[in-house]
Amino acid sequence: MPEPAPGTANGAVAEFDTRFSLPAVNDPPDVETGVILMGLDADRLLAGLGLTSLTDEPALVALAMDHLRHGVTGHLGADAMVVAGAERWRAVRAAVAHANRGIGASGSPRQAWRNTTRALDGADLGPAGPGTTAYLAACWLRHRDVDRRVTALLGPGATGTGPPDRDPRTGTYGAG
What we know:
This protein is mainly α and 176 residues long. Helices cover 52% and strands 0% of the residues. It is globular.
């Protein structure tokens, strides 16, 4: 007989163990960066993507985003970075979608991050260092919100071509 799961009453056996677990200690740090980026709203993702044109180091982009958020803008404004990111997303969205074709959806943010960044490694994204790849992966994983925001900023047709959503029958993005 299975052991009762922690937190179950009267010795009942839970079907799933719902205890909080930390990420594996051997996961690369970019996976945790990805989990954080996936939690940002579309404007922050697009502004981060726009900032990667200035520096392609994820930590420096995060620091610059924090400065923009708190009004320390220097020569750049947050709105300009959002538009720059929207234009970049428009330019590469089809390539990002193509790279992610056939990848199944995952309920695990860390697994989804690893799958997406792995798929982007071979994609034709133009100049793309680690910061650009991180923000493109986060934009892809949140593409519905990002696509809506890009369309609102740049007009219809601004999100490029390619599969917009996951196929509910197969759990994959795009056809075949």
